[in-house]
Design a protein that fits this description.
8 helices, elongated
Length: about 240
């Protein structure tokens, strides 16, 4: 009698589900990296430049802001990694949705990088021009406000809008394929329409950015954290789509 492992060696096919483990682990790690990088950047390192209207003409906290920008770069690259890592597995459920997930993550990363560049431009202008002889402080303030506003809008179209789209795409793939318990993608599928509605209302001027309505982002954040932890700890569940490599 031939056991499963022997069969895998003789046919060249691993046991059901085994080949997906490395993809799930990589995808989960990338998801956790996005949390580890984005949260400190948004809530601590970038706060001086985002909350001080006169940052560009003040003493500044350039090293702290630069660290926040570096964390955002890591976040952007990890965003792409989350989709690329799981693509070989989820494409078996629906290749169009899987490709859309990769594309959406790439778009999100590009938008995040636009915000990073705008903040680094503020730092450069502060270092080179602020306080210098003949520097027009009023013009610097206006420029600084404009660059920070660019970053604020990239947050709407990157981490907010794209997070909702990502939840719809990846959540649908996982829900249909049952690669993870359905309760996990359900959180994303419920939270995504709420976040899309709040983001649209903000763009249209119906809501103020950062208002209490952005509690709608909580279900999407919980979904991303949950799926990252599950993929790292458990991997993907075996399904008919993953029986062969």
């Amino acid at each position: 009698m031939t056991d499963t492992a022997t069969t895998g060696r003789t046919t060249g096919r691993p046991a059901a589900g085994d080949w997906t483990r490395k993809y799930a682990l990589a995808g989960g790690i990338f998801y956790l990296i996005t949390f580890a990088a984005s949260m400190p950047a948004a809530f601590y390192f970038l706060s001086p430049i985002l909350t001080d209207p006169s940052y560009i003409t003040s003493a500044g906290a350039d090293s702290r802001v630069a660290m926040g920008c570096l964390l955002d770069v890591i976040n952007a690259l990890a965003c792409i990694g989350t989709a690329v890592a799981v693509f070989p597995v989820v494409r078996r459920q629906n290749e169009a949705l899987a490709l859309g997930f990769v594309t959406s993550r790439m778009f999100e990363a590009a938008v995040i990088m636009t915000g990073v560049v705008s903040l680094l431009a503020v730092v450069t202008l502060r270092q080179d021009l602020a306080g210098g002889a003949g520097a027009d402080q009023a013009s610097l303030l206006t420029t600084g406000h404009a660059l920070v506003a660019v970053r604020d809008w990239t947050f709407q179209f990157g981490p907010n809008l794209c997070a909702a789209i990502n939840a719809l795409l990846f959540g649908t793939l996982l829900y249909r394929s049952r690669l993870v318990p359905r309760i996990i993608p359900t959180m994303g599928l419920i939270g995504a329409p709420l976040l899309l509605a709040v983001t649209a209302a903000t763009v249209l001027g119906l809501l103020e950015a950062g208002s209490v309505w952005f509690a709608a982002a909580v279900p999407v954040a919980l979904w991303e954290l949950s799926v990252g932890i599950y993929m790292v700890v458990k991997g993907f569940k075996p399904t008919p789509d993953t029986t062969t490599a």
